[in-house]
C-alpha cells in the first residue's frame, strides 16, 4: 500500500501516530502534528520495505568467539569472504586477503617483500584493529612480543592479523556442513 501526498497524511495519523508513545508528549500542537507525521511516515516506510530484524548469522556469532574479533569485524569478514569453501587452506585465504609477503625470486635467490595488499582493504583494516585488541591477550601476546622483538611492532601487527584470519578460517570451516 503506497501512501503519498497530502491525502495520505490524515490516514497516516489515524493508523500509526495515535498508537505511538511520542503522540502523548506535552508539545505544542504544531510540533505534535509534525512528530506524528514523522512517526507515521517511518511506520509506513518500514512496512513497505518489509524491514524486520534478521536472525543472527551463525558465522558471525562463531567468529566473535575469537578474541579481538567483534561484531563489525565478524560481519565484515562474513560479507567479504562469502562462501568459505572457495578457499582450500588458511594460507590461500590469507593470500586472497593480501596478508602474505610478496615474493621475488630468480633461480636460487628468493627475496620477500611487503604484503601484497591484494583483495579487499576492508578485511585488512578490520583485522588490523582486531590485532590491536588481541595482542594483549595470553594466546596472542607471546607471539606478538616475539615477532615485535625481532621485526618491529608494525610487522608483528600484520603477522598477528594473519594469525587471526587463519583462526577465522578454521572456525568457519568447522561450521561448514559436509555435502
Give a summary of the structure in a few sentences.
With 179 residues, the protein is mainly alpha-helical.
Number of strands: 2
Spatial separation of the terminal alpha carbons: 42 Å
Helix-residue proportion:
55-70%
Low-confidence stretches: 51-55
Mean pLDDT: 82
Share of residues in strands: 5-15%
Major beta sheet, strand line-up: 1-2
Count of alpha/pi helices: 8
Supply Rg: 25 Å
Main sheet specs? 2 strands, antiparallel
Task: Write down the secondary-structure element order.
Answer: HHHHHEEHHH
Overall 3D form: elongated
Number of domains: 2
* Class by SSE composition: mainly alpha
Structure write-up:
The protein is mainly α. The protein is built from eight helices and two strands, in the order H-H-H-H-H-E-E-H-H-H. It has helices at 8-15, 29-49, 58-63, 71-81, 90-97, 121-134, 138-151, 153-175, and strands spanning 101-106, 109-115. A two-stranded antiparallel sheet has the order 1-2. Helix 5 (90-97) packs across helix 8 (153-175) and helix 6 (121-134) packs across helix 8. The longest helix has 23 residues, at 153-175. The model is unreliable at 51-55 (pLDDT under 50).
Main attributes of the structure:
179 residues, mainly alpha, 2 domains, two-stranded antiparallel sheet, 59% helix, 7% strand, elongated
Amino acid at each position: 500500500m503506497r501512501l503519498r501526498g497530502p491525502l495520505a497524511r490524515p490516514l497516516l495519523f489515524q493508523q500509526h501516530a495515535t498508537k505511538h508513545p511520542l503522540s502523548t508528549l506535552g508539545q505544542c500542537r504544531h510540533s505534535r502534528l509534525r512528530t506524528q507525521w514523522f512517526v507515521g511516515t517511518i511506520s509506513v516506510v518500514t512496512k513497505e520495505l518489509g524491514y524486520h530484524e534478521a536472525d543472527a548469522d551463525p558465522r558471525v556469532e562463531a567468529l566473535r568467539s575469537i578474541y579481538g574479533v567483534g561484531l563489525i569485524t565478524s560481519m565484515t569478514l562474513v560479507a567479504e569472504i562469502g562462501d568459505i569453501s572457495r578457499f582450500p587452506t588458511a594460507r590461500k585465504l590469507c593470500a586472497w586477503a593480501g596478508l602474505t609477503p610478496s615474493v621475488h625470486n630468480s633461480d636460487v635467490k628468493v627475496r620477500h617483500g611487503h604484503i601484497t595488499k591484494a583483495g579487499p582493504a576492508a578485511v585488512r583494516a578490520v583485522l588490523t584493529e582486531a590485532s590491536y585488541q588481541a595482542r594483549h591477550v595470553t594466546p596472542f601476546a607471546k607471539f606478538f612480543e616475539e615477532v615485535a622483538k625481532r621485526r618491529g611492532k608494525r610487522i608483528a601487527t600484520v603477522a598477528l592479523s594473519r594469525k587471526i584470519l587463519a583462526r577465522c578460517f578454521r572456525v568457519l570451516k568447522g561450521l561448514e556442513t559436509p555435502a
